[in-house]
Amino acid sequence: MRTPFVVGKSAIVMALVIVGLFAELSGAAIVRFSTSVGNIDVRLFESATPISVENFLDYATTNRYVGTFIHRVPQRPASQGGGSANFVVQGGGFLLNNSIFAATGIQTDPPIGNEPGISNVRGTLAFAKNAAGATSQWFFNIGNNSSLDAQDFTVFGRVVGSGMTIVDAINNLPTVNAAAAQNANGEDFDEIPVTNLQQVLSQNNITNNEAVMINSVALRNLPDGDYDFDGIVNAADYTVWKNAYGSTTDVAADGNGDGRVNAADYTVWRNTLGAGIGSGSGFGAGTVPEPTCAVLLLAAGSLLTFYRGRR
Question: Among residues 196, 219, 242, which one ends one of the domains?
Fold first, then answer.
């Protein structure tokens, strides 16, 4: 007969400390897509998909996404009622050059391999790819596209804040079949969203005025642990973390970029408390809150399960 396994409070606290020690504490980046329709902020999953994030940031920091456009939003044909198919919003591949007939592919780097593990569900950002792998093109998942997981499409970030209202607005724009303008391998212009359909039809062209343009893709200058994105790590960020603990969909407080809000993200917050402009930490010396007993139990339980499974 086995003796019941009892976890004392000291063991729980020690487990949380161990979780923190083994966590990646570099912090997860927030990147902003500035588009002609509005801004979309995304939490990148640096520790879960490091190769993909590095690849994406290489394109972003060398400004290769500037002047590109959203070139693919698959939609239902009119015979099926029209409207969005709630699939993906795709970009990152082509410069418009103020005319769809002058569109050109951006300079790409060698393809990268897959980093599967996070599901292609609504609100996630993933890499498009071909048989050789992923290069520069990305897509926002509009619906639950978990069927893509079997093909190893890599999710490397998730939209935070109100960004999905902008993604949905793009998804709901009318689309134009501009396949006649395709003049190079890889161009896929038969479902381009436009903001002024009548103007496009009148001029028989899509210019920068009608396309959804990417003005910039840039890292936001925020300290690690700033989970409400106001530039200061303070009490409000602890509240964001506490309320989202355990979530894989609300990842504003995913400070270590593993795709989940967990104990490691508390450690990121505590280690950066007070960072940012001004003091405004909201806590005096010795009054930094500790995670609740329930959170400690969850953190310890996952670690102890792992430990016991290896005996």
Answer: 219
Tell me which residue has tokens 């999905």. Answer: 164
189 occurs within a structural domain: yes
Count of Cβ atoms closer than 10 Å to residue 78 Cβ: 8
pTM of the full structure: 0.83
Is residue 128 within 8 Å of residue 134, measured between CB atoms?
Answer: yes
Task: Find the mean pLDDT for residues 63-90.
Answer: 82
Categorize the per-residue pLDDT at 4 as very low, low, confident or very high, splitting at 50, 70 and 90.
Answer: very low
- Where in the sequence is the domain holding 251, given as residue range(s)? 9-24+223-309
**Is 69 or 131 the better-scoring residue by pLDDT?**
69
Cα 116–Cα 117–Cα 122 angle in degrees, nearest 5: 95
Residue-wise pLDDT tens digits, 215-234: 999 999 999 999 999 999 99
SS3 31: strand
User: Based on the domain organization, do 117 and 215 belong to the same domain?
Assistant: yes
The number of distinct structural domains making up the chain is 2
Q: Report helix angle 9-22 to 263-272, nearest 10.
A: 70
**CA quadruple 117, 122, 127, 128: dihedral sign:** positive
CATH of the domain at 174: 2.40.100.10
Query: Measuring CA to CA, which residue among 112, 104, 117 is closest to residue 156?
Result: 117
Asked if pLDDT for residue 247 goes beyond 60, the answer is yes
Are residues 188 and 63 both part of a single domain? yes
Does the pLDDT at position 121 exceed 90?
yes
Structure tokens at 241: 């973390």
The answer to whether 265 touches 295, Cβ cutoff 8 Å, is no
